[in-house]
């Protein structure tokens, strides 16, 4: 296995059971991401990083895994640290069997050591007893004896059983590679487990299995996820990286990065409860900032005005000692009032909260689809469309204002059906009928590959055209922060890049909008806003999703593919 792909690092822990992050900061040339982040995750605790896209969740996980270096701060963790992320932990020329063999090799070697040292003890080797006891303790701690049972559970539960074991990873879909990578990491059983969006390609059965395994994990678990149902069921602690209302003086040096967080906010309740509390706290933050700015203005005016008392140019009619008495009294009153106001002003200036950063607010899916006419019947119909090995014969008819949710387990053909409806894939049998000049567009699961050196603003203009960019600027959608429009596309997080894909799609709203796993990689706030805006779209919307939270609140039509 290539060293560049190795997802393990060994850390000298400060304690036997804790993952400890202390004062971590990380900046890139064009932005600050993490500032003075400190927290502890204990053995058996499952902490979930949450925050807006680009807030530094993946960066933090990479630093903890030893794949990136912080500008400041330290990380310590017990034993071997393993990271599941977008980079497969095995070489892509490996077959499925070779990847699974590679995953199980360390624990199989551990059980062989126990056997070897046991045999050495039987032959009278005096040092074998200590080696045997150490190997046995390690095997029991890492549950090496349950390896074959765990392997069977993961292969079946993650939907890998139907994939031929001799198939190279290069011939797998992105979702299959992701699930094989997750199985690899869980089979390795690292002491400290790091997970970046572990449920993105999991159906409900697979997500339930992973949740059960994490609940019984002996070491600390730190993950980043936007899957609200999974977070509520699995996470014991939330760590929010979004900005908090700190004192202005403590963050003045970073005014150029208004969206970066400082430290973390820790919460032990459910994700749903925390999001409600965070919204209320942000409103209080905005109100406090507004009130403090008004008071600062009042105090500054008072300092300016209180240099005089009464009539500044008043002539004293008294002479001699009396005139000096009135003049001294006026000076003392002025000095006292100026001192009081100045003290209050200095205290408030030192303690005022930082300005709340502008938060992205999605403008919604409402738009004007390109077609002008409307027919009373179906505008897009798929009749008995099938793709061997990917989609059984399926029929769908969409009215102009249809709202259809496509569900089903991994491998049932949800993405394949959307690709057929989009015209990106021709079915082996069956037919697809469109009415008139119908426009159909799809937001896929994978980010569109674009020139990494072009800026976000340039990429948007390249994709939609000059006229559309002038008519509907990128900022219209509330998907990309203004400060990020000048960044190269190659520096965006996956979530930010997918936001850009959605904005490009909405610049020319289609008559039929296809959304394949629309909650993948999007922040919790954007997911809420996106799902809430689906009823307002003026065309038809088809959603394929595993997301249990989305499915529970769905009120439109639903079609299930395969077993569910």
Automatic annotation (TrEMBL):
<dbReference type="Pfam" id="PF00005">
    <property type="entry name" value="ABC_tran"/>
</dbReference>
<keyword id="KW-0547">Nucleotide-binding</keyword>
<feature type="coiled-coil region">
    <location>
        <begin position="275"/>
        <end position="302"/>
    </location>
</feature>
<dbReference type="InterPro" id="IPR017871">
    <property type="entry name" value="ABC_transporter-like_CS"/>
</dbReference>
<feature type="domain" description="ABC transporter">
    <location>
        <begin position="19"/>
        <end position="268"/>
    </location>
</feature>
<feature type="domain" description="ABC transporter">
    <location>
        <begin position="373"/>
        <end position="562"/>
    </location>
</feature>
<dbReference type="InterPro" id="IPR003593">
    <property type="entry name" value="AAA+_ATPase"/>
</dbReference>
<protein>
    <submittedName>
        <fullName>Macrolide transport system ATP-binding/permease protein</fullName>
    </submittedName>
</protein>
<keyword id="KW-0175">Coiled coil</keyword>
<dbReference type="InterPro" id="IPR003439">
    <property type="entry name" value="ABC_transporter-like_ATP-bd"/>
</dbReference>
<dbReference type="InterPro" id="IPR027417">
    <property type="entry name" value="P-loop_NTPase"/>
</dbReference>
<feature type="region of interest" description="Disordered">
    <location>
        <begin position="1"/>
        <end position="20"/>
    </location>
</feature>
<dbReference type="GO" id="GO:0005524">
    <property type="term" value="F:ATP binding"/>
</dbReference>
<keyword id="KW-0677">Repeat</keyword>
<dbReference type="InterPro" id="IPR050611">
    <property type="entry name" value="ABCF"/>
</dbReference>
<dbReference type="GO" id="GO:0016887">
    <property type="term" value="F:ATP hydrolysis activity"/>
</dbReference>
<keyword id="KW-0067">ATP-binding</keyword>
């Amino acid at each position: 296995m290539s060293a560049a792909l190795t997802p393990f690092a060994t850390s000298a822990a400060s304690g036997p059971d804790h993952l400890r992050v202390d004062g971590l900061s990380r900046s890139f040339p064009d932005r600050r991401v993490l500032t003075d982040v400190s927290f502890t995750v204990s053995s058996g605790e499952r902490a979930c990083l949450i925050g807006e896209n680009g807030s530094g969740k993946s960066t933090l996980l990479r630093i903890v895994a030893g794949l990136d270096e912080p500008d400041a701060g330290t990380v310590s963790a017990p034993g071997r640290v393993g990271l599941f992320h977008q980079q497969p932990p095995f070489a892509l020329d490996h077959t499925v069997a070779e990847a699974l063999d590679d995953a199980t090799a360390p624990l199989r070697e551990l059980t062989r050591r126990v056997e070897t040292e046991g045999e050495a003890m039987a032959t009278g080797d005096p040092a074998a007893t200590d080696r045997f006891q150490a190997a046995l303790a390690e095997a029991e701690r890492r549950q090496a004896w349950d390896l074959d049972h765990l392997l069977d559970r993961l292969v079946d539960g993650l939907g890998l059983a139907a994939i031929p074991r001799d198939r190279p990873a290069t011939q797998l879909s992105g979702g299959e590679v992701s699930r094989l990578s997750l199985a690899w990491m869980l089979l390795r059983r690292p002491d400290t487990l790091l997970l970046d969006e572990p449920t993105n390609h999991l159906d409900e059965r697979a997500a339930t299995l992973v949740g059960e395994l994490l609940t019984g994990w002996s070491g600390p678990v730190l993950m980043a996820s936007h899957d609200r149902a999974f977070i509520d069921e699995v996470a014991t602690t939330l760590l929010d990286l979004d900005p908090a209302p700190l004192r202005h003086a403590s963050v003045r040096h970073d005014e150029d990065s208004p969206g970066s967080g400082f430290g973390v906010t820790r919460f032990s309740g459910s994700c749903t409860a925390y999001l409600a509390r965070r919204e209320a706290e942000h409103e209080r933050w905005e109100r406090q900032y507004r009130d403090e700015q008004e008071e600062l203005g009042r105090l500054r005016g008072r300092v300016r005005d209180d240099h005089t008392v009464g009539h500044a140019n008043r002539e004293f009619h008294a002479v001699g000692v009396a005139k000096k008495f009135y003049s001294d009294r006026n000076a003392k009153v002025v000095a006292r009032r100026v001192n009081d106001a100045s003290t209050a002003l200095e205290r408030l200036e030192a303690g005022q909260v930082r300005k709340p950063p502008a938060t992205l607010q999605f403008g919604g899916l409402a738009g004007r689809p390109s077609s002008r006419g409307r027919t009373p019947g179906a505008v897009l119909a798929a009749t008995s469309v099938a793709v061997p090995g990917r989609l059984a014969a399926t029929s769908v008819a969409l009215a102009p204002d249809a709202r259809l949710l496509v569900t089903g387990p991994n491998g049932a053909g949800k993405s394949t059906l959307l690709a057929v409806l989009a015209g990106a894939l021709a079915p082996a049998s069956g037919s697809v009928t469109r009415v008139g000049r119908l426009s159909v567009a799809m937001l896929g699961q994978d980010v569109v590959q674009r020139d990494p050196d072009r800026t976000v603003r340039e990429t948007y203009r390249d994709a939609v055209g000059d006229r559309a960019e002038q008519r509907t600027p990128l900022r219209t959608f509330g998907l990309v922060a203004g400060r990020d429009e000048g960044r190269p596309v190659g520096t965006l997080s996956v979530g930010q890049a997918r936001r850009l894909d959605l904005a490009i799609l909405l610049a020319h709203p289609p008559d039929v909008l296809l959304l394949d796993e629309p909650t993948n990689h999007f922040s919790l706030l954007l997911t809420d806003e996106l799902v809430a805006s689906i009823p307002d779209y003026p065309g038809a919307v088809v959603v394929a999703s595993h997301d249990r939270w989305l499915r529970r609140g769905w009120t439109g039509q639903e079609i299930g593919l395969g077993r569910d």
